[in-house]
Amino acid sequence: MIFCPKCGKENNEEAKFCQYCGTKLTSLENKKPAQKRLQAEKIWIEKCPVCGEGPLVYHDHKGMLGLTTIHICECERCGSTFKKKGKNYQLTRVTDKSNHVWQEYGKQVLAEREWINIANGGISDAKQQEQDINSWLVDASHGKVTFADTNSPVILKKNERAFLFWSDIALWEPRVVRQTRGSYGGQTFRAAKGISFKVGNFSSHSESHEELRTVDQGMLTLTNKRLVFTGSKRTNNIDLRKIISIEPYRDGIASRRENKQKTEYFIGINRVNINISSNGHEYAIPVSGIVLKCIIEGLIKQL
Ligand SMILES: [Zn+2]
Ligand SMILES: [Zn+2]
Question: How many angstroms separate the alpha carbon of residue 270 from the centre of ligand 2?
C-alpha cells in the first residue's frame, strides 16, 4: 500500500497516479518520511476523540498578519475542533460542554497517540500516571508493595532492611509562644515553602499559640522497623509500632508517637525520589508526605 502525499488516501503499490485526486505518486524510497507522517495523521483524525465517530477534517487558517498558519482539525459530525500545537493537538472547542471528553480534556494539549487512546475509550498519559500512582499508594498502604534496599549509615538490626534514606532533613517541633498583642485566631501559619497549616484553633482571647521551630538538621532513614533521625544534636529513634498518627504535607510529615508529647515534623522529604512500578508502568516519584504516610502505614501492617 502507498499513501498519496496530497490527499493521504491509500493507493496500489504500483500506482503511478493517485486514483482519488490524480497526484503523481513518486517511489516509496523518496517519500517515506512524508508518507509515514501522513499515515499517522490519517489514523488519529479518522475517529473523533469527542464523539467517537469523526472523521476530523483539516482547515488551515491564516494568523492575524497572514504570516502564520493555524492548523485546525474539525469533526464533521460533532463540530469539535483541535488546534495543532507543535507535534500535538489541543482540544479547543466542542458544541456540548457537558461531554465527558471536554470535561476531562478540554483545552488540554495531547499527543496524537493519546487522542487515539481517548477515541477508543482510553485515557491520557497524565491520567494514566495518576491512576497508576494512586493504585500503588493504596497497595503500599496495605503493605502489598516491595522495596529495594538502600544504603544508610544506620546500623541495622536482625531482619531489618533500610528502604529510604534522606541526607538533609529538617526536624521541627512546636513550642508555645506567649502572645502579647493582636490575634492569630484561625489564621494559617505559613511555616516554610510548601508547608502551610492551621496552628490550632485559637480564639481572639488566647494568650499563647504554638509556633514551629527548627530543632535540628540531619539524616533520616526509613527501615521496615524504624524511622531514624540522626542530627547534629539529636537522634530520634522512632519504632514504627509506636507511631499513632502521621499527617502528610507536600514536603514533609508530622508524626505523633506514644510516650512523646511533642509532634515531630520531618521536612524536606520530597527531595528524594522513589522508583515505583504500577500496572506495568514505571515511575520515579518524589516522596511527598502522602507517599511516605502510605509506605509507613503498609510497613506497620507487616510488623
Ligand atoms: Zn490523492
Ligand atoms: Zn466528533
Answer: 42
How would you class 36 by CB atoms within 10 Å of its CB: exposed for 0-12, middle for 13-18, buried for 19 or more?
A: exposed
Residue 145 to residues 126, 277, 280, 299, Cα–Cα distance (Å): 22, 9, 13, 10
State the pLDDT at residue 18.
79
CA 68 to ligand 1 centroid distance, Å: 26
* Cell numbers that stand for 149 in this block: 534496599
Give the model's pLDDT for residue 209.
56
Report d(CA 290, CA 299) in Å as an integer. Answer: 14
CA of 57 to the centre of ligand 1 (A): 15
Reported as a single tens digit per residue, the pLDDT across 41-92 is 568 889 999 999 979 998 887 777 777 788 899 999 999 999 999 999 999 9
Residues of the chain with CATH 2.30.29: 162-301
| Residue ranges in the chain whose pLDDT is less than 70 | 26-42, 177-210
What end-to-end distance do the CA atoms of the chain give, in Å?
A: 62
Q: Which CATH number fits domain 162-301: 3.40.50, 2.30.29, 3.90.930, 2.40.128?
A: 2.30.29
Q: Is the dihedral of CA 75, 76, 79, 81 positive or negative?
A: positive
Which ligand is the nearest neighbour of the Cα of 57?
A: 2
